[in-house]
Amino acid sequence: MYSRCGNVSKAREIFDLMEEKNIVAWTAMISGYGMHGHGNQALELFSEMRVRGPRPNSVTFVAILSACAHAGLVNDGRQIFASLRQEYGLVPSVEHQVCMVDMLGRAGHLNEAYQFIKDIPKEPAPAVWTAMLGACKMHKNFDLGVEVAEHLLSLEPENPGHYVMLSNIYALAGRMDRVEKVRNIMIRNRLKKEVGYSTTDVDQKVYLFSMGDKSHPETNQIYLYLDELMSRCREAGYIPASESVMHEVEEEEREHALRYHSEKLAIAFGLLKTGPGVPIRIIKNLRMCEDCHTAIKHISVIADREINVRDRLRFHHFKDGSCSCRDYW
């Protein structure tokens, strides 16, 4: 609970107070370190567990491989994956395979990740290909990305996320004819992308925001404050990452679309409604985009606040212009 709520130090305090630690406790603590980007601490705890704790199980290996992926600990991850079968006699599951492809892909080892997939005895699960596709987009490998996306669509033709990712890859490559084709397929099949939203709690009440949201009674104040924040960010050197939105819109429209992402609105509201020094906590249902990540680093300096964001993949702790992920996520 403490890990998922953003306080991994408190989680470790509770863990250390436990007289008897079972496999669930060890795995939960390793997973907590992983989701906060503390890969080295996760490795240390895993090593301790192997010496004096319970025998690691399949779920434990998922937690530690995920921790390695989020921290860029590729060599450690390779060794741990090898020990899964060699030392513990466990058969790699889909979750282990996804972690390995994610880890290799994030680190830029796209060829190794692709070869890993091809070496899987049975047809790899769609989740494995999805991890590969995300890596292709991250490192702008358009040719391989298109190949992977088209294979994914043959496996899951009704999954709108795959179409969105393929459309984004085509857009980054400047293939707007292909972008239009993909979007027409989505429209024809009545497929819609998942809506992003962010929540924040103020005075023990949860507030939800979506991109361009104007449903809040204090919308005008929130937007005015956010506009002021972003202007000050630009003065401090922030440049909108226009690649985070589709390329067929004009530059001014791109910046407008980026400015009112749900997490920015939630942060503006949190800053307006809380006093100096109070940390802002945000939960986002999707992966945070590059632009929001950059903007929030600037906001943490301008507002002199600690801002904690938990997105679909992990925690980001922003303070004094930097993020705990060290821009690796």
UniProtKB/TrEMBL annotation:
PPR repeats lie at residues 22-56, 57-92. Signal peptide: none annotated. InterPro entries: DYW_dom (IPR032867), E2_motif (IPR046849), E_motif (IPR046848), PPR_At4g14850-like_plant (IPR046960), PPR_rpt (IPR002885), TPR-like_helical_dom_sf (IPR011990). Gene3D superfamilies: Tetratricopeptide repeat domain (1.25.40.10). It holds the Pfam family Eplus_motif. Residues 237-329 form the DYW domain. Coiled coil: none annotated. Keywords: Repeat. Belongs to the PPR family. PCMP-H subfamily. This is DYW domain-containing protein.
